[in-house]
Amino acid sequence: MSLFRRRDNAGATADQLIPPRPGTGGGAAAVTNETALRNSAVWACLRLRANLISTMPVNLYRKVDGIQVEVPKPAVLVTPGGDEVEMPEWMYSSQFDLDRSGNTVGLITATDGLGLPARIELVPSSDVTVRMRKGKKTYRIAGTVYQPDEVWHEKQYTVPGLPVGLSPVAYAAWSISEYLSIQQFAMDWFRNGAVPSAHLKNTAKTISPAVADETKQRFKAAVAGRDLFVTGNDWDYEMIQAEQAGADWIAAKQFGIGDIARFFDCPSDLIDAAVSGSSVTYANMTQRNLQFLVMSLGPAVSRRENALSRLSSRPRFVKLNRNALLAMDPQTQASVISTRITSRTLAPSEARALYDQAPFTEQQLAEFDRLFGKGTTPAPTTATPQPGGTPS
After folding, report:
1. In what side-by-side order are the strands of the sheet with 317-320?
2. In this structure, what are the phi and psi dihedrals at residue 236, rounded to the nearest 5 degrees?
3. Whole-angstrom distance, CA of residue 351 vs CA of residue 27
4. Do residues 164 and 4 lie in contact, with contact meaning Cβ atoms separated by under 8 Å?
5. Rounded (10°) angle between helices 40-54 and 87-101
6. Measured between alpha carbons, how far is 210 from 337 in angstroms, rounded to an integer?
7. Would you call 18 helix, strand, or coil by DSSP?
8. Cis peptide leading into 380, omega within 30 of 0?
């Protein structure tokens, strides 16, 4: 958020209660929500989390005699941003802001007959100011003041007493700044001819300070202009920091990626930044996805479900279909489906529907009877997975 203030009887402000973003002095790169996206690890973490959560189907349920029954969704859970912004896009944008700034804010531009939001137009978090004065909260968005009932506000990474969520980018600023500074130095090296500290030595004789200063100035002027530096045969130039600096850059970048991944609760190996020497292994893809869903995405998904449930009248509630993330390999799929049919928790027609196949026809059932004997229940493995039709 750009700014928020909360005044109590003592006159303290929220800025005094929140740990300030680490400074970026000493030549370090400045870190904001925008510049942080230049870091590939930040971008990969935000993209991965937003991609997965936004592609989980959104379902609306209510309890009938203790049984969870799916009910039709209102328009705000189908096209929350209007005809041009459907739910997956809206979920991606809002989740991206939640993970980046700890908040996502939108203007409620239409309501339904029950007074619930019917359309929510998301706004950049950088345009939002949240103020608390005498216990009352107001929003200033692009210079206009709005009341809480005119604004949709989700937040995460919260602490007691503050009306906004905290930004992971702010707390990861040191790691991000180090990474960006390394990038900038490398760009300057190749683009502007910057060089590490070095030693220019006359091997034939001892020179006076005046000659040394004159030679240094000539050398610096030549290098700065990307020109040639001409000397006799008695000068040696040694780049005493180049090799060590190169090693330090690589080590710092590798450390920075893993460090940033921890701030965004995203395992390094899932953004192609696995730590060297790691011994963590998984028996299959399903186990890995399940671990990520439970340990990393689970809490964020639950918070979003609670927030989205406010868009419908009680006792209806929203559930994001987490099974969409648990894609299994074909062998595991066949084993699971076979077990469920045998245990009478899944019908063969439902199993075929997972592969986008119609229920068995009478002709197909007769063919099974001829091959395996009359009355034999076809095994689910007889359904050959179709290209692009692998169940999730």
Report:
1. 67-70, 58-64, 317-320
2. -120, 135
3. 61
4. yes
5. 140
6. 86
7. coil
8. no
- Tell me which residue of 325, 309, 301, 324 sits closest to 77, measured CA to CA: 309
Two structure tokens written together for 71: 């009910």
- List C-alpha distances in Å: 307 to 26, 162, 317, 358: 42, 18, 10, 37
- Contacts of residue 43, defined as CB under 8 A and 6 or more positions apart, other chains included, come to 37
pTM as predicted: 0.67
Cα separation, 41 vs 272, in Å, equals 9
Residue 136 is given by DSSP the state: E
Residues 6+ apart with CB under 8 A from 17: 6, 161, 162
**Cα–Cα dist 53/320, whole Å:** 8
Q: Which residues are 105's β-sheet partners?
A: 123, 153
Task: Report residue 276 as tokens.
Answer: 């060297």
User: The tokens 């949240």 sit on which residue?
Assistant: 130
pLDDT in tens, 192-204: 444 444 555 666 6
Q: How far is CA 126 from the centre of its chain?
A: 18
pLDDT tens column, 255-300: 567 778 888 888 888 887 765 555 556 566 677 778 888 888 999 9
